[in-house]
Amino acid sequence: MADTPHAAHRPRPLSPHVFHYSWPVAMATSITHRVTGCGLAAGTILLTWWLIAIASGPATYNRFMDLAATPLGQVILFGFTWSLAFHLLNGIRHLAWDLGYGFSIAAARTTSILVIAGSILLAAGVFVLAYTGHGGYYQ
Amino acid sequence: MSLETPLHKVEGLGSSHSGVTHFWRQRVTAAALVPLSLWFGVSVLGLIGAHEAATLAFLSQPLNAILMAAFVIIVLYHMVLGLQVVIDDYIYVNWQKLSLMLLMRALALAAAAAGLFALLRIAGPL
Lengths: 139, 126
Hints:
Low-confidence stretches of chain A: none
CATH architecture of chain B: Up-down Bundle
Oligomer: heterodimer
Shape of chain B: elongated
Helix content of chain A: over 70%
Number of helices of chain B: 5
Distance between the termini of chain B: 64 Å
Shape of chain A: elongated
Order of helices and strands of chain A: HHHHH
Largest interface: A-B, 34 and 39 residues
Mean pLDDT of chain B: 93
Distance between the termini of chain A: 82 Å
């Protein structure tokens, strides 16, 4: 107990703040899963707005479609599309974990990279299809 | 010696008071949303640039109306479960946590009611 006063002055080890870690990719996908989940929660407003616009007659519907076609509208819709793609793919990864598969560090790394690449490809693919006139097949 | 009351022991819910209910419902809604989200994506891509009449015709078909209603309900339920975890993680003050939980659930309920009413109006003779 004699060295207690001395020990009190010694700098204690602190756990570093999240931004001081070099992020393992699995940590990035974990955080992104939560962030995209919160983004998609905001996206449910878009979904409800869209359905109400369809039910409210041509004028309201056309106003919604015009807003969606603006640059800001397209950026928001791309964010929504990518968030849905990421949350969907990473959600499948989570369900696989719940069944007991893919727990090794190597598998967690590989599937993280697959989810990131897959979500970007999926979202970009949807927009490429839309912009090259391959959407709108239910008209 | 256990400090648990006999009632607590019989209920078997642990310290979270709800057992595995939340965990299980989050997984079941997630599994349901895998095919529903894919259907939603394919549907919205197919409706890009569509006139009001074409969108109305698509959502008036019984199967599409039912799938869209299921998507709205299950998405919002999955959202409530997910945001509950986020609020639990970051909000420590009890009255703030309770207020946010109630507000979030009220908004989800309002969105579900509005979305389903819109679908009824689109698909039905309302």
